[in-house]
Design goal:
By secondary structure, the chain is an alpha/beta fold. It is built from three helices and seven strands.
Length: 180
């Protein structure tokens, strides 16, 4: 058994330091080594055993979510290109946009920026084990194809590409006829 000293400070006019000694077993786990396991019965993490603290400080994004097949949503407008990767159920896994990469103004709508967005998102999701994507494209911007090319340049396979650009049935009222 070892001893650990914990110092706490209180400020009320004067600084008062209080020291406590705690006995700790040699085999006690540090906060990074202890992980909570969610039980399927109630969906909550169980209470830690006495003397243990629970922390997820050591867990990374790659360890939390493992995605092999996903859906890539590409939204390309004249001003920006956004990419969102979801799992098959539709839960968001990772996203990127030209604005989040630091492109500003008219440069956000360029094919170059869209290609960089695709490459960045692919680099984010590669540690998660992504192998295959279904692609859904929305919008009429110039970054439609280049964002897909940038995403697949990292070796991820494409299963299908679907164009889901919203098209109005009738649209807004046409301008009146010009009188000359």
């Amino acid at each position: 058994m070892g001893k650990r000293t914990i110092a706490t400070t209180e400020k009320e006019g004067t600084e008062k330091v209080e020291k406590k000694e705690q006995t700790v077993a040699k085999n006690a786990k540090t906060p990074k080594e202890t992980k909570a396991v969610i039980s399927p019965a109630n969906g909550k993490a169980p209470a830690p055993a006495s003397g243990q603290t629970v922390s997820n400080a050591g867990a990374s994004a790659a360890n939390k979510k493992r995605v092999e097949i996903g859906i890539l949503h590409v939204q390309s407008t004249y001003n920006n290109t956004k990419l969102l990767l979801t799992d098959i159920k539709g839960n968001a896994v990772a996203s990127a946009s030209a604005g989040s990469l630091g492109f500003k103004g008219a440069k956000k709508g360029t094919p170059f920026a869209a290609a960089k967005v695709g490459e960045t998102l692919a680099a984010k999701v590669q540690p998660m084990g992504l192998k295959e994507v279904y692609i859904i494209v929305k919008g009429t911007g110039s970054g439609r194809e280049s964002s897909i090319r940038g995403f697949t340049s990292k070796g991820i396979n494409i299963s299908s590409i679907k164009d889901a650009t919203p098209v109005p049935f009738n649209g807004p009222k046409a301008p009146r006829a010009r009188r000359v």
